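Appendix B. Chain record.
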Amino acid sequence: MGYPSDVRYTREHEWARMENGLITVGITSYATEQLGDVVFVELPAIGKKFEAAKPFGVVEAVKTVSDLYAPISGEVVAVNEELSSNPALVNQEPYGEGWMIRLKPRDTAEFNQLLTNRDYEKLLEEQHA
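Structure tokens predicted for this chain:
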């Protein structure tokens, strides 16, 4: 299975895509497979600030409840309101319509420290070795 090369990844299975100076964040297809059907997503308010690797929300699935971690430090400038009425978008389109938040990064250098798709694939291989 391949992972998109236009995004960066965290060890906690979030992805981050830089577009027009903002970072769009979601969870990976691997994470959605592990969670099962997503039934609820709790996202932060616009204007909330987060440090990298700190929880920014919660995703609840049939199998479990899991924290969501900010891939970089920044301020929330948008949340995906669609997820409140249709949380299944996270499973259906994890890298598209299933996005969760957009951050205005405090330091874009943090983005470059995230895992590439190849690094992320290696991480998964190591976890399942």
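Further analysis of this model is presented in Appendix C.
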